[in-house]
Amino acid sequence: MSFSLQDYLAKLEPLVNVDCGSRTPEGVAAVADYVTGLYQAIGYRVTRRQFSDACGPCLEITNAPDAERYDVMLSGHMDTVFPVGTAAERPLRIEGDMAYGPGVSDMKAGVLALWYALKDLPQAMDGSLKVVVCYNCDEEIGSPYSRDWLIETAKRSACVLVAEAARANGQLVKARKGNAKYRIAFHGKASHAGNALAEGISAITELAHWTLAINQMVDLDAGTTLNVGLIKGGTGVNVVPDFAEAIVDLRFWDNDAAEAIDARLRALAKTPFVAGCRVEVERQTFKPAMRPNADTEALIALVEAVAAEQGLAIGWQEAGGGSDANFTAAAGVPSLDGFGPQGGGWHAVSEFLMLESVEPRIRLLQGVLARLAARG
């Protein structure tokens, strides 16, 4: 594989130096335009998919336009978590063997690495490996618009490789916790806290009871955790609050455990702690746990064999955070993650990309794709 880090960085710069948060459709569209040009230049068909005006476009890219099934689905996301203005404040910069910038490793480096892995891969060029590449626009907010498309495309693929960043220690990801976000709204009755305290129904008191009850649902041994992370309520210190709200984070390894928690929360809403209170439970997002099955273990062995041939030290991590691999794995498709270059500090000013990892990780992905074609 011929590779120039200077060329890679020149192509990475316009991907990083654009505001493309999940809620910035025009920025995501700019990234999609740039990526479209890259793939069209190497003969791939690019289909633009717009699932909502609230987000940017997604891209479905393939070297086999007439294929009913694919040998592999490659996946990445074009959005970031950063607000408008971030790219101008801290554009891509290189310091020694590190690159810094918003989304540099989460996951612009991976977006570009997929193209590099495919652009001169003989098996992709001659059609012996049928590839589909899915770049979505809304991963950082849970993929609410692109989820169904990703799952349906994955079901037409033998396996899924996601190019989120490898960990700084070189590990890839074979499992991820599932997660959900709940909004719980508490409705009481306002009254004067001095003159008519007994006439009021405190929504905040109900919220406090729920916080303690939710803490009791945590099972650290099983990896099921809940966190009441945001609360608000009340209008004044002398007013019994008629409204309060809590945002709750749920993480889990067991999808059945998550559904049991959901049922417990909804049952709790039917029997408020404070008489007269009304409670609404809304599950705003849900991402199932990513757990390897027997076919995934075979895929892990394939990746390890390629890494050993290349003299590349890798390992595997079970991650607490989610990715789109959660959806594809839950659909029964063997899925692995972390095929982008190594990095860290995600979602923060400190986000970094380890430049010395770029070429080896692209080479690893190429080797895995070549092996997938051979097993065909």
UniProtKB/TrEMBL annotation:
GO terms for molecular function: hydrolase activity; metal ion binding. CDD domains: M20_CPDG2. The keyword DNA-binding does not apply. InterPro entries: Bact_exopeptidase_dim_dom, Pept_M20_glutamate_carboxypep, Peptidase_M20, Peptidase_M20_dimer, Peptidase_M20A. Keywords: Hydrolase, Metal-binding. It holds the Pfam family M20_dimer. The keyword Nucleotidyltransferase does not apply. The active site is at residues 79, 139. Residues 175-274 form the Peptidase M20 dimerisation domain. This is M20 family metallopeptidase. The lineage of its organism: Bacteria, Pseudomonadati, Pseudomonadota, Betaproteobacteria, Neisseriales.
